[in-house]
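Friendly challenge for the regulars: who can give me the structure tokens for this chain first? No prize, just bragging rights.
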Amino acid sequence: MIFNTKVRYGLAVVFALADKPTYVSIQSIASELGLSKTYLEQVFTLLKNNQIVDSIKGPQGGYRLLNLEELDVHTVFKALDPDLIAYEDESALLDVHLNKHLSDQIYRPLHESMIEHLKQLKIKDLALKQNDPMYFI
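First reply, four minutes later:
Bragging rights claimed.
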């Protein structure tokens, strides 16, 4: 599965904000992640429009996550690329029975499994794992 840059950068932004209790400037996030501030502005717009982050303007302003306790990967993906998690029954083939069989046996179950998995992945849990120390034996 290939994710577009908005999904990859948006997920990185969410993780960068997950361990910050206060508002963080877009410039700070861009520097921390090594990403373009201009591109991140587009990502933040999508996140803000989907109530994943909020912002304050001004010199002490920036962005912060909303509702970290409930935020899951599915919500982030849906905000950044709705087509990524969209589902449509197979209908391109002339054989209606084959279309239905492919949809019922492969595409729909795969889609439902992916959505369920993404909903179970809570950002707060994943963010904690990223900060865990690594031990080598």
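The chain is about 55% helix and 5% strand. The domain at 5-131 is CATH 1.10.10.10 (Arc Repressor Mutant, subunit A). Your move, everyone else.
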